[in-house]
Amino acid sequence: MHYQDLEVSSSSLWDGQSNSVPFKNLVIPEFKVETLVINTNKPPVKFAYYRNLRIAAKIGEIFQRFGGIEQGKTYYVADKTIVLELKENQKLIEDALIESEKDFFGGIVARPHQSTKAIMHPLVSREAVCPLGWSHEFSEELAQRNLVLPGFTVFSTDDLRIAFKELYNKGVYQIRLKDPLAFLGMSQFVISSFQELEQFISDKIADQGKLQQYGLVVEENLHPEDLKTYSASFITVGSHQIQCLGVQRFSQGLYRGTDLVIMRTGKRILPKLLAQVGIFNNEDAQAIIDKALLFRALLNKHIPEIKTARFNLDIVSGIASIYSNGTCEEVLRFALLEQSFRVGGASPGEIWGLESLLSYPDVDAVCASTYYRYGDEAYQTVSEEEILYCGVDNRFGPISISVKVHQSGRGKGERKKGERERVV
Fold first, then answer.
1. Is 417 exposed, middle or buried (0-12, 13-18, 19+ CB in 10 A)?
2. 153: which strand partners?
3. Which of 73, 95, 77, 93 is closest to 85 using CA atoms?
4. Is the alpha carbon torsion for 47, 49, 53, 58 positive or negative?
5. Where exactly does CATH 3.30.1490.20 map onto the chain?
6. Are 197 and 164 in contact, with CB atoms under 8 Å apart?
7. CB-CB contact of 154 with 163 (8 Å)
8. From CA 70, how far away is CA 311, in angstroms rounded?
9. Residue ranges, CATH 3.30.470, the chain
10. What's the rounded Cα separation, in Å, for the pair 329 and 84?
11. Angle 324-330-333 (CA atoms, 0-180°, nearest 5)?
12. Which one of 3.30.1490.20, 3.20.20.80, 1.10.600.10, 3.40.190.10 gives the CATH number of domain 114-148+150-220?
């Protein structure tokens, strides 16, 4: 869909719940910003599809007001990571529609597994089953540098059993299994015995072809109490660049949004703003960025064909229990958890924050929040938030998505009793 078409279809972004969506300046003839729906033989997640349309519209406004892209050039906002193994995606490169990271928002990889969290762990051995294009060097160096949790990626049930046994023999009695294709923390399972493993294989692995193509992550489980998940994002939109740190909000297993600090690339971290979103230790914040930069350097070294305009890394801090000789030792972990090269839940905050920074050249950083509300709460509007979507999603039911930029530097989203934080 071209950017100028969005005015015609804008009413559908509210999904029939109201006609009061705050649209403005949607027709911009000088630029084209397309939403690119990647073919996965599955219908797109409804709320994400419409959210991405609004992100595309906002990026078009940014180009109109502040430049950043060659006039007449088409800019793409992809709903998923672009996999060049798919012929329809190859044409984007062959026809010079996408020539660099400045031409799209998201990521480009050569193989399907490279777009997922599968690349975060090594195989059980170099002889293990793996897809074409697997980088042993990259995943092994992550493990050797202790950048990731103890774990493996497997592409067969035989290797799954080997991986489970390896961790179990090292005293890891709670092991998390993760579907690399899942998002928002879905499709994850914690097992603690060989019997539970066999039950998991019987109940959950019906498609061996999917396992061979995308794999399964097998890693040490951390205690849910006091668990924090940090992340650093590096964003390129045309010629504009920013980096972000923030805090996710979760309640009842559902993602509730993110509070972000959005900074100009290369500028110093502002402790006051970091504290506003819940990052109180400036040294921790710098360590998060350093780990993310090291990961990106290793990625460029071992898998240089991956190109990203949105690069996001989650970094987890928590406690693991290790059993040995009848005793249990609690060990603090601080490790890379997963990466994302696509539009994510925090992307509205990133893009609206970028617009704010461009509007105020003397400001080095701003705070922004995204809000995801479910059920009856989805239809409650809050002043000063810009609504991106409100409707009934095919997977989550009633849901609304909104975004707010805190010009005052206040970035703390509202939290209700029982709602926990995850620092991103």
1. exposed
2. 217
3. 93
4. positive
5. 114-148+150-220
6. yes
7. yes
8. 23
9. 228-423
10. 45
11. 115
12. 3.30.1490.20
- The DSSP bridge pattern shows strands 74-78 and 32-36 to be parallel
> For 228-423, CATH number?
3.30.470
Task: Evaluate whether 167 touches 218 at the Cβ level (below 8 Å).
Answer: yes
- DSSP labels for 9-71? HGGGGGTTS-S-----S---TT-EEEEE----SSPPPHHHHHHHHHHHHHHHHHHHHH--S-T
Residue 218 in 3-state DSSP? Answer: strand
Greatest pairwise CA separation for the chain in angstroms: 70
Q: How far apart are CA 347 and CA 115, in angstroms?
A: 17
pLDDT, tens digit (0-9, with 9 covering 90-100), for 226-265: 888 787 899 999 999 999 998 888 787 788 888 899 999 8
pTM over 0.85: no
Tokens standing for 353? 């924050």
Bridge partners, 77 (sequence order) = 35, 105
Record the tokens describing residue 72, joined without a space: 């007449």
How confident is the model over 103-153, as pLDDT tens digits?
999 999 999 999 999 999 999 999 999 999 999 999 999 999 999 999 999
Q: Which of 302, 280, 300 is nearest to 292 (CA)?
A: 300
- Distance from first CA to last CA of the chain, Å, rounded? 32
Question: Which residue is it, tokens 């707010």?
Answer: 404
Q: Which residue type does 343 have?
A: V
